[in-house]
Batch of 4 targets.
Target 1
Amino acid sequence: MATYDLWLFNTNSEADLTGELQLSFGDQAKKVRGIEKLVNIFVHLFLTEIGSDLVYNDIGTQLADIIGGNVKYNHSLFEGIILLSIDDVVATIKEDQDSNTPDDEFLLSVDLLEFSALFDTVSVKVQINSAAGESREIVIPSQFSL
């Protein structure tokens, strides 16, 4: 039996300004396939703290250790943690892929495009590339506090 992610979208155009997030299925739930599925999987794993999933307690990253950890900012240290987190997520995704994985859902690579920190806010911009030649640039998370 096939499994699908659900596509949720923000229905509040001012959500980025107000911090409110309203999600909707729209008129009909949409199955997420292709590069969008890769993006969902990547973001989920990237933001999951290792050990926080009761079933798969070995998935996730150590990124949560610096979020809210009251850690003094050190650009090279944080960039290293983010690069390591990206590598961990890529390895986890690739372990799950096999010859039956469609090319548009087969992770080829993830590139760190930008990492910036301003005061207590960090932004990470990555490009996710599939074996089908598709790619998506995403910022994850939009902002999080240190």
Target 2
Amino acid sequence: MKNQIKSILKEYTKVTAIKESTLDIIAEKIEKNLLIKQSLEAKFWKFVEKAGWLNDQNYTRINKKFKSLSKEEQKELSDAFNKFHEDLYDEYKKDWIGTPGIEVSDDGWSDLRAEVIGRGKNFYDNISAEQLREMALNRDYKESFSYCFHSL
């Protein structure tokens, strides 16, 4: 991975002629940050899987598990949830407010995106605007997986 990063950096920085040793340092830092991000995302999806939202949409039960984690872990998982929730917003906002649209209110749109996350990584990775429309039309979502990540 480091060599791929260096290659991209070399291409991007041709004009500024950065030293090879500087590229090594930058590439190592980028690689480290990517590995940390991947690790945190894997940790988040593992928590989601163990939460069992599909079988039992009891956000109070899941929130108890969440609150039993350290404050650092809670923050990591909460940040990951928010990132995935925002990514869905960014990717499907035009479908939500456009034509034919996704028929849900502001709160429903938030709940719908939270539901997609609650169904797990595979579901999240494969969601489409059409599936979101069908879920909204059939009211195939619950309020709200996002509550699982609240702490006092």
Target 3
Amino acid sequence: MKKYNEKANKYITNPMQRIKIERDVPMELASVRSFFGKVLTQMESGDSVVVSDGKERNQIQALAANHGIPITTRSIGNKRVRVWRR
């Protein structure tokens, strides 16, 4: 059934005729552009890295939270922090 749209000055068809619903299509992983994001995605469970200060720890924690990667951090002295992927 077509409906006349006065503002566009044309006929509108059913939009569902133009859209095809697909099932079982795997979702691609989101691209990671930052250095720490690439490090986190390459780490496996139990791997750890040492970062130089709290600012870098905060960056890693934010990236891990955004990408759903579980991590644990501990201060190891001299403003250094160890980050484990759980």
Target 4
Amino acid sequence: MPGLLKVLLIATGSFIAIAVAGAFALAAVFFPPSERRDRDREIALHAIAQTLHERYGKERSPSLPLAIAAPAGIGYRNLGNGEYQLCTTFENERPGGTGTWAHRLGRNCFQFSVHDRPWMDPSKRRWIFPTC
């Protein structure tokens, strides 16, 4: 019986390894590198907005930091009164839709309030002319 168990474990491990490799290969084919980089930028915007909301959103008059530690290529600007702006440069255009970060090709900025939840409600993502 231990020999059969060993064979089953090896077979299962091999299957998982092949499945993971296949998933990465499909992602490389269906999602070009520029789209993956844009998706990484969207994830960074999402994470920053969520963190600022969680840290300062409960304050009546939040005092946002003047600067934050953001990933390379992400700009932040404190606009006062709990409002802030996040900017980044996208390599592809993404039309609007539910649950997406709609943006144009090139530099894009979004204005938020710490009292909103822009990662939950796309209508709270206000695209503005890039200034940062």
